[in-house]
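Form 7-S
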Amino acid sequence: MLEADMLTDKDFVRLKEFIYAQCGIRITEAKKTMLQTRLHKRLRNLNMPSFSKYCDYLFSERGVEEELVEMINVVTTNKTDFFREPAHFDYLTHHVLPFLSPRNDSGRTLMVWSAGCSTGEEPYTLAMVLKEFAKEKRGLDFLILATDISTKVLERAKLAIYDEKLITPIPEELRKSYLLKSKSADQKVFRIAPELRRHVAFRRLNFMDENFGFRETIDIIFCRNVIIYFDKVTQERLLTKFCAHLSPSGYLFLGHSETLLGMDLPLEQVAPTVYRRIA
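Output:
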């Protein structure tokens, strides 16, 4: 890599402060090389001669309008799987849904939020679990709001097409019910069935947005392995906003590496990394 292509300490500080201000993600010194590698693709695409020139462009009014979303697409990390952390889905089926579903006897739609949905595996997993539960609970209607800050992963999630190796965590009986195999012999890909896709609504959302830009009251929030990218202050501010949207006795699921220790929130822990809002 030429010297002109290297990310200087000055430009690194400029970029990490900008990223923190725009989307709350904390970029440490240890991730400087990662940031340089990922953003170097943007420099090539834009024919920018240096990171300094890229920063000047990005921080301009025009750059914020044209480049901000592209930059966020590049620097955000998106790791997900179908039925990731399966104990959560067992708890959802056996404890949360039986507790919440009586609310829907009046015809109310159960609202679920997959916050940080990435390429869609989590919201479609939730749709399978809820659809299976609905077979026993007649009349249960549900909607899954699936959000991410990255437009790139949202485009893939909306397509709902997955390679054969990605669907292996899905139990065989659910594959038969909710996956459609490509008719092409050359393509070993599967698409989520329309009956599931109609229950999932995708939307771009930046956690730094005031009130998230929606008014829906949510019964269940899955926000797993997301807040680890934020500092403690941002985590508590974000989770406070989550609680403002969470219905009384609604549930919050976090990743197993995440904790609410030391935070002043209206939540009680009911299982490992599962919390219920105190009504």
